[in-house]
Amino acid sequence: TFATIDFAGSPHRWGTWADLVEPRPGTEVLGRYTDQFYAGTAAVVRRALGKGTVTYLGVVDEGSLTEAIVEHVARQAKLPVQVLPAGTRLHRVGGACVFANSSMQTV
Fold it and tell me: Can you list the residues of the chain whose pLDDT is less than 50?
């Protein structure tokens, strides 16, 4: 059975594993479970640590949530972000770039 998490105003599916996250004071809740037993509780949290931050995702998701969190964290760190189509990867090795498409779509 799949359930959802709201992250940045978008629903994301999960269904394999979920932690009950109890944020301590000073921890920012970035996403919440929207249904089932977990409804309303924290699912994605961020906390300052040293000179940076730690972001924790309490589930194994379908992929879209992990991608959204990585994009969010990269933008927060002011890193350049290039969102790729689903099922694709861009590998940079030395001065070369390799684009891999494992989807059934032409991109």
Answer: none
